[in-house]
Hints:
By secondary structure, the protein is an all-alpha fold. It is built from 2 helices and no strands. Helix 1 runs antiparallel to helix 2 (about 35-65). It is elongated.
Amino acid sequence: MTFKTIDWRIVGMALIPALGVSIALTLLGGTIGLSESAVDRVSQIVFFPIFLGACHFYKRRRSVKPA
Length: 67
């Protein structure tokens, strides 16, 4: 069985937009006046798909080699 190596640069780059959206949702929810538990839950739910999408996006961009 072979395992793929983790490219930590891709993981790091994918964390930036995921954390940014999560922080923005937390701040926006606080200014609107939503309950803290609801804002935290929505932030956690949104974080994972954004992180996976960004990983996929950066992985595809790095695999393209110029001719």
